[in-house]
Amino acid sequence: MECCFPDGFWWGSATSATQSEGAARDGGKGKNVWDHWFELEPNRFYNGVGPDRAPQFYYRYKEDIALMKELGHNSFRFSISWSRLFPQGDGEINKQGVAFYNDVIDTLLDHGIEPFVCLYHFDTPLALQERGGWESRETVEAFARYAETCFRLFGDRVKKWFTHNEPIAVVEGGYLYDFQYPNVVDFRRAVQVGFHLTLAHARAVQAYREGGYDGQIGIILNQMPAYPRSQHPADVKAGRIADAFFNRSFLDPVVRGEFPEELVEILRLHDALPVMREGDLELIRSHPIDLLGVNYYHPRRVKAKEHVPHPDAPLLPEHFFDHYEMPGRKMNVYRGWEIYEKGIYDILMNLKENYGNIPCFVSENGMGVQDEHRFLRDGMIHDDYRIEFFREHLKWVHKALQEGCNVKGYHVWTFMDNWSWINAYKNRYGLVAVDLDNDYRRTVKKSGLWFKQVAENNGF
Ligand code: BG6
């Protein structure tokens, strides 16, 4: 074999509650921000398709889990829907929600698939959002209680926990760039949200440690290496700042216990430091994670600013760097994202060299394709482009392993085509196709068969 992975390597996929479950109004679930935003502005969602039309994992999890097993999974990450467990975000618990997640966990275990559970994947309960969401300290405390409840209910069987998925996306989407509710564009409020997400994470880690559970707890972070256009000091500086904003803003506090000095300096200069209480920084400092999940799709390329921003322009991270389109870059033409496989190696080496070689795994990597039915032949999607995408990334993961990186597994995004926020079903990512017009019928893609082989051979 060209690439042979260590025994026990984690092979699987990831999804999130809102993107897979459906049943948005069923089973006693309370509304979250996605249900609400879709009611307000269905036009913001691709083809007007909302979260209720996620692929119905809530009703079909048993067949889905059997198919995961069939496709070689030994592990699977999903998230708990906060408002399915606590319809109001806090207070009274929904017993139907508890029963559902208990059965998902038990079914996974019965199939020899280890559940990796994430507590928050963009789906703030509406009741909490209406009281300020992540801008409010109340949400931090509600999250700590929710996390504690999950550990108590499911911690006997779930041994891998993740507090948040891509918290920076909540800051970016909801408070800077208008692709998530509440569609605010305000740098200072964004910083406050980022700080509270970090604090909520630390409170959950604290609850896990104090509960004396025998598993591991971490977080899932999207890492986009920020490559400068050139080695000119101004470009390099632009790269460092983009890295501080989008990668290190969460990576540093959760692993090293402190925020990047460069970022703090920028916030101070722009009078944008968040409101904190005594003891907050110490709480973050004293609760490092056990395990890091890395989501990687594409790199970020930047250059020094070409024009001084207008003094009245709203403050955004782009105040400090410009985006750069590298000539000749390889593209996923079906999604419009760059493909740069070596990026995953650079991320892993950075973790090895600068973050104490923390135990980690690739928690999402995948290729979105618009109008994928174009590739349907003889009843199967022939997604050779996706097989190549996975294979080329895995080669770099393998190289990182050989060079001593502490990388424990590879999860693709995603098991079956799912509902992707405002993009709904625009870009398909699954190993398994979902036919929306045909009772959500599942059909394995060619990449699903390839993945099965790789997982079962532990390499390729
Ligand atoms: C990832 C998110 O960054 O991107 C997923 O964690 C999301 O939740 C995925 O579905 C794909 O995004 P898109 O916009 O191509 O559908």
| Cofactors and ligands | 6-O-phosphono-beta-D-glucopyranose
Number of structural domains = 1
Q: What does the overall shape look like?
A: globular
- So, the CATH homologous superfamily? Glycosidases
Task: Quickly describe the structure.
By secondary structure, this protein is an alpha/beta fold. Helices cover about 40% and strands about 15% of the residues. It has helices at about 15-20, 35-40, 55-70, 80-85, 95-110, 125-130, 135-155, 165-175, 185-210, 235-255, 260-270, 280-285, 340-355, 385-400, 445-455; strands spanning about 10-15, 75-80, 115-120, 160-165, 215-220, 225-230, 290-295, 300-305, 320-325, 330, 335-340, 360-365, 370, 375, 380, 405-410, 425-430, 430-435, 440-445.
What does this structure look like?
- With 460 residues, the protein is of the alpha/beta class.
- The protein is 40% helix and 16% strand.
- It is built from 15 helices and 19 strands.
- The protein has an 8-stranded parallel barrel, surrounded by 6 helices. Strands 6-8-9 form a 3-stranded mixed β-sheet, covered by helices on one side.
- A hairpin with a 5-residue loop joins β18 (432-435) and β19 (441-444).
- The chain is globular.
- The site of 6-O-phosphono-beta-D-glucopyranose has 12 residues, from loops.
- 6-O-phosphono-beta-D-glucopyranose binds next to loops.
